[in-house]
Amino acid sequence: MSSLSRDEVAKLAGLARIEMTEEELVNLSSQFGMILDAVARVQEVDLTGVKATSHPQPLENVARPDVVLPSLSPQDALSGAPAQEESRFRVPQILGEAE
Amino acid sequence: MALPTYEEVIAKWDPVLGLEVHVELNTHSKMFCSCATEFGAEPNTQTCPVCLALPGALPVVNEKAIESTILIGLALNCKIAPYSRFARKNYFYPDMPKNFQISQYDEPICFDGFVDVEIETEEGTKQFRIEIERVHMEEDTGKSLHVGGATGRIHGADYSLLDYNRAGIPLVEIVTKIVPGTGKYAPEVAKSYVAELRDILRGLKVSDVKMEQGSLRCDANVSLKPIGSDVLGTRSETKNVNSLRSVERAIRGEMIRHAELLNDGKKVKQETRHFQEDTGLTRSGRSKEQAEDYRYFPDPDLVPVTPAAAWIEELRATLPERPSLRRKRIKEEWNVPDKEMEAMINADVLDIVEETVLLGADPTKARTWWLGEISRIANDKNVGVADLAITPADVAELVALVAAGELTDKLARQVVEGVIAGEGKPSEVVAKRGIKVVNDDGALMAAIEKVCAEQAETAEKVRGGHLPAAGALIGAVMKETKGQADAARVRELLLGHLGVS
Amino acid sequence: MIRKTAAQMADALAKGETTSVELTQAHLDRITAVDGQVKAFLHVDAEGALAQAKSVDTRRKSGEKLSPLAGIPLALKDVLAQKGVPTTAGSKILEGWCPPYDSTVVSKLKDAGVVIMGKTNMDEFAMGSSTENSGYGPTFNPWDLTRTPGGSSGGSAAAVSSFEAPLAIGSDTGGSIRQPAALTGIVGVRPTYGAVSRFGLIAYSSSLDQAGPFGRTVLDTALLHEVMAGHDPKDATSINAPVPAVVAAAKSGDVKGMKIGVIKQLQGEGYQKGVQARFDESLKELASLGAEIVEVDCPSFEYALAAYYLIAPSECSSNLARFDAMRYGLRTGDVNGASAEAVMSATRDAGFGREVKRRIILGTYALSSGYYDAYYGSAQKIRTLIIQDYAKAFTKADVLVSPTAPTTAYKIGEKVDDPMAMYLGDVATIPVNLAGICGMSLPAGLAEEDNLPVGFQIMAPAMQDHRLYQAGAALEAALLSKWGAPILDKAPALGGSK
């Protein structure tokens, strides 16, 4: 029986940037055992020497020419913005490390 | 305890480097969409559903970006992967619209290359081989403007404003293997490596390679180990290194900082640091709550890149001469003294001089114009020579006009001014300004007679066969004709006039 | 008029017996009358639809040569971007968002003069099999308003089966067109992966998603298929090849000599009695039409569900990262001093529903370092085995068949608290998505135990979509002559009128 602890769920929720209440964490943790058991069936098969398929069609080298086409107008680009200022997207203060 | 001096550091510690260079390609359109890539455009005018990551939008790779990356790989002596894929690097950051970066993970397009760099030392020229781990394709992020707070920096800002014009510009990341054995030369080797890369990329014409505009950026990994030890120390990664000089300073600074910690028995923290251009020191980035887990996986929206071997060979055949070899060849072919060669490289005029020479100009003349008068004007205007409105073709024409006797050097300088002022090609400037060498013998004879009368004593000496005295008279005639006369003709006429021809 | 097939409506338009404005208005009236009960639509764009209809009428009057479906109204799954029209993918996180661009499918519909009446309800971001996961409440099955229409394209299927629209577009990541088609008694096709552009289709799982047509007949579905499909340079996974001749195949409907493979693993145990019975009868019909029925073995299909529920969540965990409150959509928690990071987390908590969060967390787990090989990596290898099973099966048969879903429509609320039970409903449809091939569901009759529609699934190799229509049209004709009337005639009346 697989399981995922409340703390593991909390860590995943952090990685996925989803705030979760204690109740949600506990609920998900309890559901995950069953779900993980079901999906872990992929490990029952002997997969030695089997190649992974990431794309269902065997296409290769699909590229476009280096040609500029019209962009959106800044009005259209910003049309969905929750907040904007000076033709830029206004976002809350960023706590990251990049400058 | 005081900071150790650099000499103290290298007496005890052996630095190990690792360099990651990001290069913005100079393609017309972005990596995965058809938006323009112009630097300095109005905010969010070069964005579309793809680079804004609007729901439903899909990336399609720019074929020119693939070609440029392969060229870079070939120029860096890399192997080109017959099969490579794009992968998604997942992490949240507001300047990255999709909250994943399309990059390459375990299947980069180029791998296993090297670059040889030379540095001049008191022990003579030393060569170092920098091994290249990989060259891969990815995309740039948007730019944020931090508003509020004291310094305009991210820390303490009230909010940020995002411009996604830069988001999706093609980036190529060039990663070295660890670089051991550079000893005390580490900072200089790193600088030379980045300079060599810059020259190679410029020669390939795949990037603007302007460090100050961010089209070439360097992250420097530094660690120290005790001399003689095989065990690598903990490294720090310094970002934000925006000039060749900063590469050198940042590495030197980090070596000293590490040594100070290690000398005190402290540990170096594995972290990202930011180089401060003003102080030359690095500052710790905000430490993350937990180690990032990028959850790389093959991007299902993009298909594998499998360049044909024949195409790779075609590209290889177009590779320009390696910059360092080219410099050697030019130095020999043009017979350039060391100091002049260095001056040309430092002034960044080698390309432009060579172009001028290829247009027929004498190498020495071409070099003198670009390094002399034109560089002086560029300095006055505080711009690069390449930014002036004068081209190799103009200079080649100028050199030809002087050689044909239609301009004197002095007049040619006026023509240069005119060309730079936008008055047209040299011949047009000559015509417009009415600049011409005085070769009307009548006018010259009048001047000669006038000068001989004024300096009768000197004239008499010449008449008596003392030819060196003629110089003073010729000079006076030139002065009289405001430099528009051809000195050789003046001499001829003067000597004839004085009966000593 | 609204009970006619799209082909008949197109004919009437061509002959001048009606106008697109009349036709569109009739459907808008029907929506007004019954959608309060069915709740197929999230947004009805009456004004835009009538304007489009009027323009087609004008062009027709001027003698312009129009596409076969010009002037025919259609319902569009809310997963496809339509410029200036609210597009939410069934999620609160996109409430009120109007795309500044058209998806390629929408461009093609507009070019063909198809009248887009509005956006249909769906499971949030297409994650679900019952349309109960919509952020805007469930859609109800026109056959029994206490039951789900299936999902995730439940709104589109319900719109077509309740005569609110003659045609609709859905998307199918694990069966989201075929299963609701089965549960509502209509035809639905998931085209070959790469046959229809995904540009502008809000991504759930990029390597599995594919938009496709719904209709009440095989021919109608083919007509829409032909309009939607075709190479698109804006989608790198789009196949650069001519669209298979699906309309011609739907018109021919000949299965004489066709080899039809019954997949051993997709029948029997776990399949409702009436579902299995209708499936078996349909096979007999096909055999009597001259098809050769063979059995094929696809042992890896046993692991398809597990592989799907790793691959789709993994891709979705990355695809849905862009919904972060920065550039569009919902933003919550932006109180004084809150960081961008905190606002992202609060918004994603408030904007995403339970199932979406569950899948994002599962996908985040499956891709995380230390688990990648065991989960995502293994799932991708199972995918290879499934492709190999199909390849082998297609050496023995021209098309493969199975029941579309193990059961008929279930009650609303019946499975919402049991995700695994819900997931099991996709067991027969998922292998097609994993292999990137094409599949169709068409009505096979009603299950005797509940009088609800049963779907018959046909599968064909990549870019052999015409085979679906050829076999489907043959079976459809045989069943229609057996029943004497279209199956939807047996559905109860809605809103007091038929």
From TrEMBL, chain A:
Residues annotated as region Disordered?
70-99
Q: Which SUPFAM superfamilies match?
A: Glu-tRNAGln amidotransferase C subunit
GO biological process terms, semicolon-separated: glutaminyl-tRNAGln biosynthesis via transamidation; regulation of translational fidelity
Q: What Pfam families does this protein's entry cite?
A: GatC
Q: Which NCBIfam families does the annotation name?
A: gatC (TIGR00135)
Protein name stated in the entry: Unannotated protein
From TrEMBL, chain B:
Outline the segment boundaries, as ranges, of region: Disordered: 272-293
Report the transmembrane regions from the record: none
- Annotated Asn/Gln amidotransferase domain ranges read 351-498
Q: Which UniProt keywords apply?
A: ATP-binding, Ligase, Nucleotide-binding, Protein biosynthesis
The record's annotation in Gene3D superfamilies points to: 1.10.10.410
Q: Which HAMAP family match?
A: GatB (MF_00121)
- Record-given protein name: Unannotated protein
From TrEMBL, chain C:
Where does the record place the Amidase domain?
22-468
List the residue ranges forming a coiled coil, or say none: none
Residue stretches spanning the membrane: none
SUPFAM superfamilies named among the record's database cross-references: Amidase signature (AS) enzymes (SSF75304)
Q: Which UniProt keywords apply?
A: ATP-binding, Ligase, Nucleotide-binding, Protein biosynthesis
Output this protein's name.
glutaminyl-tRNA synthase (glutamine-hydrolyzing)
A Gene Ontology BP annotation from the UniProt entry: translation
Q: Which Pfam families match?
A: Amidase
Catalyzes what? L-glutamyl-tRNA(Gln) + L-glutamine + ATP + H2O = L-glutaminyl-tRNA(Gln) + L-glutamate + ADP + phosphate + H(+)
Annotated GO CC locations = glutamyl-tRNA(Gln) amidotransferase complex; mitochondrion
Q: What class of enzyme is it?
A: ligase
The record's annotation in Gene3D superfamilies points to: Amidase signature (AS) domain
Organism of this sequence? freshwater metagenome
Write out the similarity annotation.
Belongs to the amidase family. GatA subfamily.
Q: What is the E.C. number?
A: 6.3.5.7
InterPro entries (alphabetical): Amidase, Amidase_CS, Amidase_dom, AS_sf, GatA
Q: What Gene Ontology molecular-function terms does this entry list?
A: ATP binding; glutaminyl-tRNA synthase (glutamine-hydrolyzing) activity
